[in-house]
Design brief:
It contains 14 helices and seven strands. The protein is an alpha/beta fold. A seven-stranded mixed sheet has the order 1-7-6-3-4-5-2. The longest helix is centred in the N-terminal third of the chain and has 27 residues.
Length: 368
């Protein structure tokens, strides 16, 4: 039994660390996660730390990046579909990835990818049918595991609320870690020794989960509608080597208007540091389809950076955008790195500061 307790504690603490990192990151950038309901497997494929862990050869890396780039272009447009259509669309994309990756990765690499997925899922993995089957959990065990997770989640939600309200983080982090550790110890008691052993084997060697949360998605190309302000037509491909701040807005949207000072500040602050601001005006109302009016409002607000007029929502749909305003940060290699949906400083959020710091980090990265 001492061996069993030692093994389970090792599993518990590592998974608790992962969940803590994800929870605090989400609260820091409240509303800034465009992938909160997305299949974790799909997200892991876009994590640089995971790609590094797989130890790809140069040939594998090129094929891997080509596959993800192709699938990313299918992924973005499904994001703003009706829920059922979005879920079905994403399932098709993920299914393609699962079917085609074995032609690129070795069996040992595929196995390691699944192990990392287990680390990412934490205890919630035990509620999945395939994992429960591999562990040979009976119905009563599965029910008990679900009850434990749901009960702890009530307290977790309360902590997340306190963090979002700006209460001191350190004691809340400790409380959260204690809760998750308690959850996992309770789950361990539900499992038999051989089931704990199987779970440990499914996890494989320890993965440093604190490296997660840095996904890189191939940014969709801009659809040139033929209507630009303050610039000739631009393409993201020609902006390689520069950081691109791309934001969707509508001229009559009050939340968009509240973001204007931040856009002007970023444009003025960073325009000599390889940063390009691009606005995409997608109308929400009929009045916002009046191009003369849109141009006049941009001039009145001193929005001097390039603006693409997206009257038929072609870019909106290509990006799967679903909210005014939305801000995307694209790195020097053309990958989407961060995303903030909604007004940056809505109800006390610190979106402007958060995104400004992310811009600075991207500008500091090497060009290639």
């Amino acid at each position: 039994m001492p061996w069993r307790l030692h093994t389970s504690n090792s599993v518990l603490l590592s998974i608790a660390t992962l969940t803590l990192v994800i929870m605090i990151s989400d609260v820091d950038a409240r509303g800034a996660d465009p992938y909160s309901q997305i299949d974790p497997y799909w997200l892991l494929l876009h994590e640089p730390a995971v790609v590094e862990e797989l130890q790809l050869t140069d040939k594998q890396f090129d094929a891997y990046q080509e596959l993800l780039g192709e699938l990313d272009l299918l992924f973005f447009p499904v994001r703003n579909k009706a829920r059922d259509d979005a879920v079905a669309g994403l399932e098709k994309v993920v299914d393609q990835a699962r079917r085609r990756l074995p032609a690129i990765l070795q069996p040992s690499q595929l196995r390691r990818l699944n192990e990392i997925l287990m680390w990412r899922l934490g205890t919630s993995a035990l509620t999945q049918d395939d994992v429960a089957a591999k562990l040979q959990l009976d119905d009563s065990q599965r029910k008990r595991v679900q009850e434990i997770i749901e009960k702890i989640q009530v307290d977790v939600t309360a902590i997340e609320k306190e963090v979002s309200e700006g209460k001191p983080r350190a004691p809340l982090e400790r409380k959260y870690t204690d809760l998750k550790t308690k959850e996992q110890k309770q789950i361990i008691r539900v499992l038999k020794t051989e089931q704990v052993d199987r779970w440990k084997k499914m996890l494989g060697t320890t993965f440093d989960v604190t490296q997660l949360g840095n996904t890189r998605f191939k940014a969709p190309p801009l659809v040139d509608t033929g209507e630009w302000m303050n610039s000739r037509p631009l393409a993201l491909e020609e902006l390689r080597g520069k950081v691109v701040v791309l934001h969707f807005y509508a001229s009559g949207c009050i939340n968009c208007i509240h973001n204007y000072p931040h856009y002007r500040d970023w444009h003025d602050r960073f325009q000599n540091n390889d940063l390009v601001m691009i606005g995409i005006h997608t109308p929400e109302t009929e009045a916002e389809r009046n191009l003369k009016g849109v141009r006049q409002k941009a001039e009145d607000e001193k929005l001097t950076f390039p603006i693409l007029l997206d009257i038929q929502s072609e870019n909106w749909n290509a990006w799967g955008n679903s909210m005014w305003p939305c801000v995307y940060l694209i790195d020097k290699q053309g990958y989407l790195r961060k995303f903030w949906p909604g007004e940056l400083n809505w109800q006390g959020n610190n979106g402007e500061e958060y995104m400004r710091k992310q811009i600075e980090l991207l500008l500091d990265e090497p060009t290639s």
